[in-house]
User: Fold this.
Amino acid sequence: MFKSGVGFLALFGLGWWLLATGAFGGAVQMVAVGAGCVVAVGLMLAARRILPASAGGPLPADRRRRFNQINGLQWLVIIVIAVVCSRAGAPVLIPPLIALVVGLHFLPLAVVFDQPRLRVLRPPCWWLPVWRAGPCGWRRGRTGPSVSPWA
Assistant:
C-alpha cells in the first residue's frame, strides 16, 4: 500500500483536509475531521485489498536522488515564501503561493516517476483560482477565505 504511494497520498490528503477543517467550528468541524479520517482509512484499506503485493517498490538510486532534490527544493521555496510574505506584511499570499509551489513540483516528479501524461501543462485554468485569490485579489483588497476566486 505504501509502496504504491496510496498510503502516502491518502495521509497527505488527510493532512490538507484537516488543515481546511480549521475554517469550521463545533460539530461541523468534528464531522469533517471524522469524514476525512474515514476516507483516508478507506482508501488505504481498498488499496491493500485491490493492489497486488508487488505494486510499487523502491526507486532506483538515481530516481530517489532526483525525488529528494525536487522535494527539498519545494520545501526550501515554501520556507522562503512564508518568511518573505510574513516580513512583507502580506501573509494572505502564503496559502495561494504554497499551493502553486506544491502543484508545480508535480511537473518534474512526473519525469521521475515516468508519467508522460502528467508532463504536459494543462490549460492554465488551474492558475485562475490561485491568481484571483492571491496576487490579483491582494492588489484589489479582496483576499481571504470568504472571497471566491471566480468572482
Notes: Helices lie at 6-20, 26-50, 61-87, 94-104, 106-112, 127-133, 135-140. The longest helix spans residues 61-87. The two ends are 41 Å apart (CA to CA). DSSP finds seven helices and no strands in the chain.
